[in-house]
Amino acid sequence: MTAGRRVLRGEFVQLRPLVVADAAVTLGWRQADRARFLNAGARTVEEQAGWIAARPESDHDFVIELTDGRPVGMVSLTAVDPVNRRAEPGRFLIGEETAVQGVPAAVEAMRLLYGLAFDELDLVRVCGIVAAENTRMVKWQKFLGMREEGRLRDHLFLGGRFQDAVCLGLLVADYRTTTLPRMNALIAAARSR
Amino acid sequence: MLDHAAVQDIVLRALESLNDERAADDRFVVGPQTRLFGADAALDSLDLVSVIVDVEEAVSAAAGRTVMLTDDRAMSQEVSPFTDVAALTAYVLSLPELA
């Protein structure tokens, strides 16, 4: 069983492997306004199911669940390159905003994903792109240790027009010295009730 | 010199900025009593990070030195600095960098 085929458990959330039966709920998330910065995806449940079924074995695609089993979002680690020891985190989306208010779902989901990347798969780098106008996500990724490594002009066609993509990267050393302490601080904040 | 009113204003402006990015029917009430994170809070962790980044930047600019809000000191507080506006304001004012 590969790491992408088992549940990664945290204190507030768990990452469960994405399965075809998640097609309807994930399609609903992808079609909501909050997903406007993701690439256009499936238009029907059948298309979404087909997309899920076609995920390569090397992908680690997860549904983010609260510990009571309620699905609240999705996240993936793709393009895993064991030779150059890098991968791309992405498809990060919290679909059930109300359910995660006051819960560190996003930050713990990322901590579990980065744990998979850096501790289990022994990668040295994760990188990806974020739509430049997705300022909240750019701010989030930089706060969690990613550094801006470049900008691709008019790289994304979203909402009927082109916009830049920001290239962000995180090295394992920065993950351990910056990302993990900040993630732990945010998760600790949620324990204070 | 940052006093209580100035720091609280920075926190409230960070929340209003966050609200501006939300749809009209998704906005929360911004005020000194607004809960930030934890039970009955208005924010998720992406929102909280947005607020932390904005407050760090504004406080650092006003103080003329870098101020971090999520280091070991924040984690060691008996009450999390991120529970509500009052707690975050008090925590910022307690930082020795601002003395």
TrEMBL record, chain A:
Entry-linked Pfam families: Acetyltransf_3 (PF13302)
The cross-references to SUPFAM superfamilies, in alphabetical order and at most eight, read: Acyl-CoA N-acyltransferases (Nat)
Please give the Gene Ontology molecular function terms for this protein: protein N-terminal-serine acetyltransferase activity; protein-N-terminal-alanine acetyltransferase activity
Record keywords, A-Z:
Transferase
Q: Which domain of life is it from?
A: Bacteria
Q: Can the keyword Secreted be found in this entry's annotation?
A: no
GO cellular component terms attached to this protein's record: cytoplasm
| Ranges for domain N-acetyltransferase | 13-173
What is the protein named?
GNAT family N-acetyltransferase
Q: Which organism is it from?
A: Modestobacter muralis
UniProtKB/TrEMBL annotation, chain B:
| Top-level division of the source organism's lineage | Bacteria
User: InterPro entries this protein is in?
Assistant: ACP-like_sf
Q: What is this protein called?
A: Acyl carrier protein
Which classification does the entry list for the species?
Answer: Bacteria, Bacillati, Actinomycetota, Actinomycetes, Geodermatophilales
